[in-house]
Amino acid sequence: LRILDEIKKFNSKIKLYQASSSEMYGNANSLANNEKSPFHPTSPYAIAKLYAHWMTKMYRDAYNIFAVSGILFNHESPLRGLEFVTRKISNGVAKISLGIEKDLKIGNMSALRDWGYALEYVEGMWMMLQQKKPDDYVLATNESHSVKISKIMTRFNK
Length: 158
Known about the structure:
Layout: H1 2-10, E1 15-21, H2 44-63, E2 66-72, E3 75-76, H3 85-97, E4 112-113, E5 116-117, H4 118-129, E6 136-139, E7 145-146, H5 151-154
Parallel strand pairs: 1-2, 2-6, 3-5
Antiparallel strand pairs: 4-7
């Protein structure tokens, strides 16, 4: 909100990218979600993201600010933190192979996620800022994968 206020006050020609999140949709089926889908946040994180998303839209509409919101689904890279499942797996496998750990504990193996590649998503963010008119955009692969499927990891070893 403060950044939007500063853009409004000092230079409305500045372009802003707002990082929204697919978490704003809640537990809805990710393959059915798009820019027009209703939001049902189910966590404090999702509620905070939705607040920022709606404030960006409100400032864009009310003050003619070039502000885009990218609603991104999961996007992975080797830079992901250890709290994320793909890094938890790779780190756990490394520890097992080194004899540091004996087991790898993961939560819900049946959970489905739309996983994309972070580098491609960053290109998408840049493309949003190149549009003639600002808007909201969803970035996703439109494919759901479970944690059980390991082929997703092969994309990140390029």
